[in-house]
Design a protein that fits this description.
193 residues; mainly beta; Porin; eight-stranded antiparallel barrel; 2 helices; 62% strand; elongated
Length: 193
């Protein structure tokens, strides 16, 4: 009898044990930020699973929806910047059963950026000609105040900081520091919480 009780006490505790609660969710997100010294709006989302009501594991992606004009290598001609990024999302929810609580998501991934000249016709999509493009690493920690509206819907508002590393747009003098910035975000989350 004592041997059986001792065996139960010696069980290794794991994230994916028999008592692990796994719930799924999807979040539609809006992010306002500075991007190459101009305001930019990114739309996208993230989704995944929530383990034991606290741990978030998932994926996410965002695309810039606003025009970002700047003076590039061609004197007197405005060029446009387009960008998007995505990756793995990790996070932690503090006091998830409370009506108002805190969520700490972190996105780690990669992005792409493109410089486009609209003065040059592109017969494929009439978007202009790509002058230069690059990929970059992105890390974006955030803090959100989240409200449990219903059992299946949550609303969150918060902020974060987007770290960008590895941008290679030397011809147009766009650097990592031009893409690294604070973000303000709003999220609408649907799922089984």
């Amino acid at each position: 009898m004592q041997s059986v009780a001792q065996d139960a006490d010696d069980d290794i505790k794991t994230v994916f044990g028999k008592d692990t609660e796994i719930k799924g969710f999807a979040s539609f997100d809006t992010k306002l930020t500075d991007f190459n010294e101009e305001k930019a709006l990114f739309l996208g989302g993230h989704g995944g699973v929530i383990l034991n009501k606290h741990i978030i594991l998932g994926i996410g992606g965002y695309g810039m929806t606003t025009r970002n004009d700047f003076n590039g290598i061609i004197p007197g001609r405005k060029l446009d910047l387009y960008s998007g990024y995505g990756g793995l999302v990790f996070g932690y929810i503090i006091a998830p059963k409370e009506v108002i609580h805190i969520t700490l998501p972190l996105l780690l991934g990669a992005g792409g950026i493109e410089v486009v000249d609209h003065h040059v016709a592109n017969t494929i999509d009439d978007r202009g000609a790509t002058v230069e493009r690059s990929v970059y690493f992105v890390a974006e920690p955030s803090l959100q105040i989240e409200v449990n509206v219903t059992r299946f819907f949550r609303f969150a508002i918060g902020g974060g900081y987007r770290f960008v590393q590895g941008t290679d747009l030397k011809n147009n003098q766009v650097e990592d520091k031009d893409l690294t910035s604070w973000t303000a975000n709003i999220s609408f989350k649907l799922g089984k919480f």
